[in-house]
Write a structure and sequence with these properties.
about 170 residues; two-stranded antiparallel sheet; single chain; mainly alpha; about 40% helix
């Protein structure tokens, strides 16, 4: 039975109680609001009885403004941890300069290695009347590899693989 079922049942019971009191000629000084409040209170008590038990109340934590807080002595704070002594430089150990140190500024930047063009890269210059399928058959030995050829040279060929411009230099897959 869910919580809404409890509420529906309690509402019906409250209505029945009000009706019974009205039928019996209950004291007119008692208002309908008081009847509803007592029915609500009774429903809350029944729901609390059906609910699983809650853990006991936790000890009250004193607030900084309360008298109980002022009566509790403050917990002592631990002493500050001493800073570790700098490590002694080991003989022969290299110092790695930080970006803000003078040693870092004195060291020239390492040269950037540029990739060398490989000698195995093959190219083909397109002639009048060539198609990617014909180039793939002649140069790669398989006409079906024209898609691979197009994928490698999309920037040179353009959006339409059927229109290969004469004089364009294509890179051939290995």
């Amino acid at each position: 039975m869910g919580i809404f079922d409890f509420l529906k049942a309690d509402k019906k019971q409250a209505q029945e109680q009000v009706q019974q009191r009205a039928d019996k000629g209950a004291d007119s000084s008692r208002s309908a609001a008081a009847d509803a409040a007592s029915a609500t209170r009774a429903a809350a008590e029944r729901m609390a009885a059906a609910a699983p038990p809650r853990p006991g109340p936790s000890p009250a934590t004193p607030t900084p403004a309360s008298a109980a807080h002022k009566a509790v002595p403050a917990t002592p704070r631990p002493a500050a941890m001493p800073k570790p002594a700098p490590r002694a430089a080991r003989p022969g150990a290299a110092h790695t300069p930080t970006p803000h140190s003078a040693a870092h500024k004195a060291v020239p930047a390492a040269p950037v290695a540029r990739p060398q063009p490989t000698a195995s890269t093959r190219t083909y210059t397109v002639r009048q009347g060539d198609t990617l399928a014909a180039i793939a058959r002649r140069e790669l030995g398989d006409e079906a590899r024209w898609r691979e050829l197009y994928a490698m040279n999309r920037g040179v060929v353009g959006a339409n693989p059927d229109l290969v411009p004469p004089g364009a230099v294509l890179t051939l897959p290995s």
